[in-house]
Amino acid sequence: MTTATAPPGAARFWPLIGGLAWSEWVKLRTLRSSYWTLLAVAVAMTGFGGLLSAAYARHLTPASRAALDPASYSLSGFFFAQLAIGVLGLLVMTGEYATGSIRSTLAAAPQRIAVLAAKAGVFAAVAFGTGLASSLAAFFLGQAIFAGKGIEVHLGDPGTLRAVLGGGLYLAVFGLLALGIGALARRTAGGIAALTALAIFLPVAAGALPASWQSSLVRYLPTAAGQALIGRTKFTPPGPLLSPWAGFAVFCGYAAAALLAAAITLHRRDA
Questions:
Q1: Average pLDDT over residues 142-150
Q2: Is the dihedral of CA 54, 56, 58, 62 positive or negative?
Q3: How far is CA 239 from CA 9, 16, 236, in A?
Q4: pLDDT at position 1
Q5: Looking at residue 68, what DSSP letter applies?
Q6: Residue 6, Cβ neighbours under 10 Å: how many?
Q7: Coil, strand or helix at 22
Q8: CB burial class (10 A; 0-12, 13-18, 19+) of residue 57?
Q9: Alpha-carbon distance 187 to 96, whole Å?
Q10: What is the pLDDT of residue 132?
C-alpha cells in the first residue's frame, strides 16, 4: 500500500513562503515610517474625503444633486491616499536597496521570486486592511455630511458596498503597482517621480487630447480603470468609465505587469 505525499518542491515551497512572509511582516511593522505612512493614508482618505464632501454639500444645486453619487464622492480622498500608500509600496523595495540590506535578504533567501512574492503578499494585506478601514470611515463621515441635505445612502443600498470595498482594493493594487516600480527603479526618488507621473501627470496630459480620443483612451489608463470600481468621485475623469469589475481587472493587469517586470529584473540583475 502506498501513501500519497506532496511533491518535494511543494513541500519546500510553502514553508519557505511562510518564513519569508513572517520576515517581511517583521520588517514592515518595525519601521517607524510604516506607521506614519499608513496614518497618512487614513488621514488623507477620511479627512480629505470629508472636506471635499462638505464643500460639495455646501454648494449643492439641483443639477449637482442629480449627478451626485454620495457613496463614491465620499471616497474622493483616495486621490491623496494613493500617493501615501504608493510611497510605502516603493519603500518596501527601495528602502532595502538604500541601506544595502537587500544583499542580506537575497543571501538568506536566494529564491528571489519567492522574496518578491512574500513582500507583495504581506504589503497587499496591510494596504487592503488600512484602505478598507479608511474607506469605511470616509464613507460614514461623508454620509453624515450629506444627511443634512437628505441625500445620504447606506451600506445596504445597491452599489454602495462595492464602492467602499473598491476603495480598499484600489489602494492595495496601487500599492502593488508602486512596489513593482520600486523594484525596477531601486531608488526612492526615481520611483516617486515615476509614480507621480503615473497617478497625476498622465491623466492630466490625457485630458488635453481631443474629446474623441479621451472617450476611448482615458478610461484605460491605470488610475481611471481602477476608479471604475469606486465610482464617480471628485477626481474621476470626464467621459464614460469601464464597468466596475472590468476596470478593476485592467488595473490589476497593470500591477501584474509591473510585478512581472520586477520579478524578471530581480532575477537577472545583481543586488
A1: 91
A2: negative
A3: 50, 47, 9
A4: 45
A5: -
A6: 10
A7: helix
A8: buried
A9: 10
A10: 97
